[in-house]
Amino acid sequence: MLNQLVLFVFVIVVFYLLMVRPQQKKQREHQRLLRGLKAGSKVITNSGIHGLISNVKDKTVILKVSDNVKIEFEKSSIIAVADTTAGPS
């Protein structure tokens, strides 16, 4: 009986270390990214749209995707800040 309990606890610990903890770390990094958004940042949305942030609101951002084209997105749809240091290839 004790062996089964130890095995069960071991499986739970492994599950936590391999599944739950990395997901929590990824979520914290994404929240940090969203808090750091500011006007002028180049970003990529989860739908693959690249744009320049023109305005940041509480829950949304307005992206300039082309001349005279602005789209409002939920902040949570921003997945990455584009690398502005890389030049054209």
| Element string (H = helix, E = strand) | HEEEEE
- Percent helix range: 25-40%
Number of helices: 1
Number of strands: 5
How far apart are the termini?
A: 64 Å
CATH architectural designation of the largest domain:
Roll
Under CATH, the topology of the largest domain can be stated as SH3 type barrels
What global shape is seen? rod-shaped
Based on secondary structure, the structural category is: alpha+beta
Strand content: 25-35%
Text of the CATH class of the largest domain: Mainly Beta
The main β sheet shows up as: 5 strands, antiparallel
Strand order of the largest sheet: 4-3-2-1-5
**Contiguous runs where pLDDT drops below 50 for at least 5 residues:** none
- Round the Cα radius of gyration to an integer and report it: 20 Å
The overall average pLDDT, rounded, is: 91
Task: Please give the domain count.
Answer: 2
Give a quick set of tags describing it.
89 residues, alpha+beta, SH3 type barrels, 2 domains, 5-stranded antiparallel beta sheet, 5 strands
Q: Care to describe what's here?
A:
Strand 1 and strand 2 form a beta hairpin. The chain folds into 2 domains: 35 residues; 46 residues, Roll (SH3 type barrels), CATH 2.30.30. Strands 4-3-2-1-5 form a 5-stranded antiparallel β-sheet, with helices on one face. The termini are far apart. The mean pLDDT is 91. With 89 residues, the protein is α+β, with helices and mostly antiparallel strands. 38% of the residues lie in helices and 31% in strands. It is built from 1 helix and 5 strands.
